[in-house]
Amino acid sequence: MFALHIVWIIVAWIIHFFALMRLFPLLISTPFLFLSLLSFFTYLNNRHRFRGFH
Known about the structure:
Blueprint: H1 2-20, H2 26-46
């Protein structure tokens, strides 16, 4: 799962780089980059969380 997040972030950075060169719409690439970073940091935050005694 960690590697999949890293690949998704790299793809989002590449698409955003193309958008900065005006080869791809910036309006699409910016939320894509934001969502990829948000999902990665959410995954890192919830990984080792104490869920209580069951």
